[in-house]
Specification:
By secondary structure, the protein is of the alpha+beta class. The protein has one domain: YlxR-like (Hypothetical Cytosolic Protein, Chain: A, 2-Layer Sandwich). Helices cover 39% and strands 16% of the residues. The protein has 3 helices and 3 strands. A 3-stranded antiparallel β-sheet has the order 2-1-3. The longest helix has 25 residues. The protein is elongated. The protein starts with 13 loop residues before the first strand and ends in a 7-residue tail after the last helix. The structure holds zinc ion (ZN). The site of zinc ion has 8 residues, from strand 3.
């Protein structure tokens, strides 16, 4: 379930976020980091509404999500998405010169 919109989605359509021992929350791109995790849609809209997902966030992480942290998660997500589309574009090239 997405912690932001609360809808059920297949896991491959969700991104894992994890609360580190230091108490910050970050994207877990490998899905293997230790810590309390929560899932969110791979959708910018869901990152944008994270600050309003108060109760679900508290349930998932046992704490509130500070606004600057949700802004940082959103930036990280945008970066990851750009990298993914860059990688996809690269993979689509019929001939590499490497
Ligand atoms: Zn969602």
């Amino acid at each position: 379930m997405c912690v932001s919109c609360g809808e059920m989605h297949p896991k491959k359509e969700l991104l894992r976020m994890v609360k580190t021992p230091e108490g910050t929350i970050e994207l877990d791109l490998t899905g293997k980091k230790n810590g309390r995790g929560a899932y969110i849609c791979k959708s910018l809209a869901c990152f944008e509404r994270l600050p309003r997902a108060g109760k679900r966030i508290e349930k998932a992480f046992g704490c509130k999500l500070p606004e600057e942290l949700s802004a940082r998660l959103r930036e990280e997500f945008e970066r990851v998405r750009q990298e993914e589309s860059a990688a996809a574009a690269k993979g689509a090239e019929p001939f590499g010169d490497g």
